[in-house]
Amino acid sequence: MRLRKFRVRAFRCIHDSGEIKVGDLAAFVGRNESGKTTILQGLTLLNKEENVSNLDLCDEMSEELKNEINIAEGEFDLTINETQMIRDKFPNIPEIKKLRIFRTNKKQKTQYDFGPIKISNEENKTLNSWENFSENILSFVETIPNHIRIRLDTTFFEGPLPESRGIFDSQMREFGNSIHVLASEEPQIISEWEKVSEYADSAFDKMLVGTTELTALENFIEEYLHPRFVYFSDYKKIYGNINLNEYVKEAKGQRTEGIEFIEEFDKAETVRNLFYLAELDIEGLEEFHDSPSKLIKYLNTASNRLTTRLNPAWKGDPIHVDLRYNPGNILSVVISDVHRDGTVTNTGLLNRRAEGFKWTFSFIVNFAAETQRAELKEAILLLDEPARNLHPTQQRGISDLLKNLAGSNQVLYATHSPFMIFDYTPGNLLVVELDKRKHLSKIYYDYWNASDDTLTPILYGLSRGLVESIVDREIGSNSRPVIIVETMSDAMYLNAFDKFLEDPNISMNPLNVVAAYSKNSVLPLAIFYRDHGYKTFIILDNSEESKHISTQLTANNFSQVQTIFFESGGKQIQSIEDYLHIDDYLYAVNQTYEIMLRREGFTNLSKEDVLARGKKGILENLNAIWMEHKDEGWGKFNNEEITRYICEKISLNEIEFLSDKSKDQLRTLYRLISERIRQHQNLISSGSLDKIHIKRKFEQ
User: Fold this and answer.
1) What one-character-per-residue DSSP string does 649-695 give?
2) Nearest to 646 by CA among 511, 542, 541, 494
3) What is the DSSP string of 615-645?
């Protein structure tokens, strides 16, 4: 079965998830304490063996819980094989392709709903069920004379359906033999028994449990088709030296010391999983103790098998795992790096590797083993942070493993990582948010409506195309020039003023404007773009930090042509805001902070107010004014708010406040950029730029 919709109610912090559609490989994304784990654990309540604890019920819903409500429910699609199995057992019931399973707060057992399909709940004596079969046998026994009947043991027919055909056949033969012996002088009884048991051999394989079609169908689904939700959360670490004596004791529940020979290790499951992947049997090892050559061959075969099963999920250079037997009944796990040219290096015990390597190795062992076991085929796997602590490259390896599993298993997992999100289809990507006021979780199927903080990993994942565009040299060499700026405000201004100026001679349309995350990211971002074929230019303000960035750019073979400082009339200016006439910029400031300024007794900030502070640029002067009023609750001057105001007005074509003086000054910036691009192109054409790079490398 595959889960297609689910709903969780009144479970821990989940008030009501609402009806959520879900795909075969679905990621739950949300901040810490948002309820991701609770959602996954809530789904396990649909397992037939689970129970609902009163401690897990939502305290805030005590009134609703006085009535019977569904705590967990899921709508499932049946596979073709499952539909056929039901048809074979119940030929008179309409075809069943969908099924709803639910568990309430009042009844511990899971229940089934077949939707519009009507199934009889009347007793049916012709139904091939164990109850009808055993009742038929017991009715026959009642007709036997008392002196024979009291000597017959009918316990078998008074119990539940036998677990296997072998038990059924054995018990039927034993009971039949008793009748033949005890009624040897009563041929009528034996004849009647032959009639009653005539079809017993063929009846068992199709035998059901229940006396109505509905109960028989529900029992059949519960026994053979009920979905399994398997929850993974705890991934234990292997250190490298396994004490086999202690492992055997642990497996038998007789733990005394740690399983690890040197390091502490707290559970046997991971070691068991390691042996499962290697198909290594402890008893098999003991058989070869007196035959070193056979032991070596046995361990080599197990090592190769283990390596083969682990490498598909291992990114980077492949590894080889070698299992070695040491004195003291110690099994060592030795890891080697296998390089593309076939060389093998870095051979050593697993416990000598980095912590991240050990965690990654142990996770893949645990996860690969648990998901490859026969009992997990077609299970619905619930994984809580399956890639925590892993490098992004290894996370992609785990994501590949999940994709492969989605063929035979449905996989639902919680993650914080953008590298673990690879399907942005609604239903395959769900976000979970916590309502802080009610302390209740909400799931968004339309995840784009969630808060910006919740969406952060999703937005990073969606931006992977931008990263790929940086590292794809073919895109770079055929692209427009890239202008890297220090702030998002710079990028917003450049794009907005381009539209505002409406000057085809200096239009920025042929350019890509890229905002660095922070000043210290300007240098590496510029190098990445430059080294991947882009014509790269950097615009800097005139702060001391920016001048230091310029020096670093020069040291990394950027020409002076590629580094552009803000200037106007041959003089350096502090920021892009200083290209605007001061009265124009103050108009935006006064409009944005109108209420606050009026409250503090200012009608408007004037040019004189600003220049009186004697700082270098308009931003420094405004920051100084705000600092003077810090104790009055002004906070910090937010120039990004002013940027948004100005750019919004430009987009709406409400630009009356922008004067010709601002336009003229801004044109000088665009002319400067255009001139630098032409100079750079000329240097490339003449080969001078290559000579400069060669000379600098030689000097270094």
Assistant:
1) HHHTT--TTS-HHHHHHHHHHHHHHHHHHHHHHHHHHHTHHHHHHHH
2) 494
3) -SSHHHHHHHHHHHTGGGT-----HHHHHHH
- Helix (H) / strand (E) element for 564: namely strand 563-565
Do 142 and 219 form a contact (C-beta atoms < 8 A)?
no
Neighbours of 648 (CB within 10 A): 12
Q: Is the pLDDT of residue 31 over 50?
A: yes
| Dihedral, 491, 495, 498, 499 alpha carbons, nearest 10 | -150
Q: Number of C-alpha atoms within 13 angstroms, CB side, residue 407? A: 5
Inter-residue contact 379 to 366 (CB < 8 Å):
no
The 3-class SS string of 455-473 reads: HHHHHHHHCHHHHHHHHCH
Contact between residue 669 and residue 564 where contact means Cβ atoms under 8 Å apart: no
Mean pLDDT (whole number) for 330-335: 92
**What gap in Å lies between CA 625 and CA 621, rounded to an integer?**
6
Does 471 score more than 80 pLDDT?
no
Amino acid at 565: F
- Give the distance, in angstroms, between the CA of residue 344 and the centroid of all CA atoms in the same chain: 34
CB half-sphere exposure, 238, CA atoms < 13 A? 29
Residues 99, 604: Cα–Cα separation, whole Å: 68
Instruction: Name residues whose C-beta falls within 8 Å of residue 382's C-beta, 6 or more positions apart in sequence.
Output: 40, 41, 43, 44, 229, 230, 231, 232, 412, 413
| Cβ contacts of 1 within 8 Å, gap of 6 or more | 76, 77, 78, 79, 82, 99, 225, 227, 378, 380
Q: Token digits for 217?
A: 């169908």
Provide the token pair at 256: 């005394």
For 537, the enclosing helix (H) or strand (E) is strand 536-540
Residue with tokens 């270094």: 700
Instruction: Please report, as a single letter, which amino acid is at residue 284.
Output: G
Contact 530, 482 (CB under 8 A): no
- Rounded distance between C-alpha atoms, residue 424 and residue 437, angstroms: 29
Give rounded-to-5 percent helix, strand, coil for the chain.
50, 15, 35
Per residue in 360-412, pLDDT (tens digit) is 788 778 777 777 765 666 789 898 888 776 778 778 777 777 777 777 789 99
Three-state SS letters, 506-520: CCCCCCEEEECCCHH
- DSSP H or E run through 102: strand 98-104
In this prediction, residue 509 carries a pLDDT of 58
> How far, in Å, are 121, 239, 335, 344 from residue 304 at the CA level?
56, 20, 12, 15
CA distances from 565 to 167, 175, 467, 505, 571 (A): 89, 101, 27, 21, 10
Residue 61 gets which letter from DSSP? G
